Amino acid sequence: MAKEDNNKYYLYLNGRILGYVDDPKTYVKEVREARRKGLISGEVNVALIEKLNSIDINTDKGRIRKPYIIIEDKKSKLTPELLDKLWKHEIDFNYLLRNGVLEYLDAEEEENAIVAFGDEDITDQTTHMEIDVTAIFGFTVNTTPFPEHNNIARHAMLANFTKQAEGLYASNFNIRFDSRAYLLFYPQAPIVTTSAYEGVNIKHHPSGQNFVVALSTYYGYNMADAVVINKSAVDRGLGRSIFYKTYVDEERRYPGGQKDKFKIPAPTAEGYMGEHVYSKLGDDGIIEPEMHVDEGDALIGKVAPPRFLEENIGAGGLEEKMRDDSSILKTGEFGDVDSVVFTESTGATKIVKVRVRSLRVPERGDKFASRHGQKGVIAMIVPQEDMPFTENGVVPDLLLNPHSIPTRLTFGHLLEELAGKAGAVDGKIINGTAFAEKGSVRMEEYSKMLEKHGFDRNGEEVLYDGITGMPFKAKIFTGVVYYNRLYHMVSNKMQVRSRGKVQILTHQPTEGKARQGALRFGEMERDALIGYGASLLLKERLLDQSDKAEVLICKQCGDIGYYDRIKRVAVCPLDGSSSFEEVEISYAFKILLDEIKSLHIMPSIKLNL
């Protein structure tokens, strides 16, 4: 709303206009004082927006709000006496809210606040102070050590990777039937932890392992973000996990008294897929636990009544036709049947749940990430005897390319590597909470711990090439980093096809792994082949292997003709000519011509005969 001459400030409540205010600053101040005294609800937030000449009051639900300490006369209202009582549990957090020591601000009211990090930052303009300096980060970032040393763009990435990590998501996983679940075999608590991580006891649900990491290249195999993994570490259980997938089906009831039935479908059933598909089912049509299954195997045999009433009556009206509606293991999946459960819905219909378990050992293409947004896929799994090793015979679990650190500005990764090494040799859990101490103070502390145990103060070690046995010319920075195995596994994403189903409309191959589809060959891939000069390969990909169609083109008018199978003659729909030339075109081009015709425009193909 534009600013007006009379300088009135319009008053909005949850986005609806109520009226206007002549003295906005006094009004806003009085509302805030009333909130702090408890005269109005603490849920009320008021914001003065001078650019829009408005006062916004918000009381609706769904707002994200954050608590701050109130500053008055350059002094914090959270006095040492109150803090002491809080530690002794004589008062609680809500007491501080009710007595105007703390208050919650929403996103709009934060625009009016000038917030200090600590007592030393308070000025004449300061209105609030952070309860804790780490509150500027979200919870996920606060579970990461040394986040203040990383580029801020990495915080969003590391938060996503933390959520995608495999671990012990629930201790009762063996009696749960989640649609998809990932479970790490040997999860560990991190050596370098934070107060937020300890405070909510995430160590009881860990989602990673402490890797011995060396910042080193390996014959070019860990270029860019790729990583090289020690095969013996993988054989000992590093990154090993289980993938659970649950299939659910029920005997539905339909109007007219018909219903589904769990059983092995008869060969006469519509859509019967062959005896081999149902060979692993029990007599009741349900697969039994610990049975190995591969893609295409039936897990739950089921027959259902036909979808349309006219199909219902069979020959002579004596038998009821049924169709196969079994649950089949999807394309690309494999494993063993872990558990089978029978239960009932509220409508007393029978439900069957089958949980399939598959072992996932790290392989080339699987994704790992540290808690600093340093992601990478395995490029090579190297036998231990070919991996670099230290003077003490320590072989790294993972080799990370050193170029990936300075370009991403993830110096927290380096700090964790040094701190993790110091904690491992000293037998201590290291506190990596953000802003706990200055970086230089922390570095000196870790260096002293390493020196005490005979290591280089900077974490560097002489490494020997496992293949030649010769020492590397440069010292290699080696330490311990907490790595997550992410659920992006190559065995879940691998997709391949030679020939198969096509779409009815475009005659092009279907899309998507679930439909046994092909991979899209896009414009940029086409440009690459044009630039390379591989014209025949381009024709093969975009025509022969896609939607090649042989059509009849009328030599007189250029329209597409058709073949009359009754008269056994080619016909032109436009001029009735029988003079045609057979031409190979993309079926998508034929659709384009048909769409142009639907706009009353007659496209004509000129033949260069």
What would you say this structure looks like, in words?
It is a single chain. This protein has 609 residues and is of the alpha+beta class. The chain folds into five domains: 9-133, no CATH class; 147-240 and 364-485, Dna-directed Rna Polymerase Ii 140kd Polypeptide, Chain: B, Domain 6, CATH 2.40.270; 245-360, OB fold (Dihydrolipoamide Acetyltransferase, E2P), CATH 2.40.50; 495-544, RNA polymerase alpha subunit dimerisation domain (DCoH-like), CATH 3.90.1800.10; 548-598, RNA polymerase alpha subunit dimerisation domain (DCoH-like), CATH 3.90.1800. The protein is 20% helix and 26% strand. The strands form nine sheets. A six-stranded mixed β-barrel has the order 12-26-13-24-23-30. Strands 5, 6, 7, 8 and 9 form a five-stranded mixed beta sheet that branches. Residues 1-5 have low confidence and may be disordered.
Tags for this model:
six-stranded mixed β-barrel; alpha+beta; 26% strand; disordered N terminus; Dna-directed Rna Polymerase Ii 140kd Polypeptide, Chain: B, Domain 6; 5 domains
What is the top-level CATH class of the largest domain? Mainly Beta
Q: So how many helices?
A: 13
Write the CATH homologous superfamily of the largest domain.
DNA-directed RNA polymerase, subunit 2, domain 6
- What's the number of structural domains? 5
Cα end-to-end separation = 69 Å
Helical fraction = 10-25%
Instruction: State the CATH topology of the largest domain.
Output: Dna-directed Rna Polymerase Ii 140kd Polypeptide, Chain: B, Domain 6
Count of extended strands: 34
The main β sheet shows up as: 6 strands, mixed, barrel
The gyration radius over C-alpha positions equals 34 Å
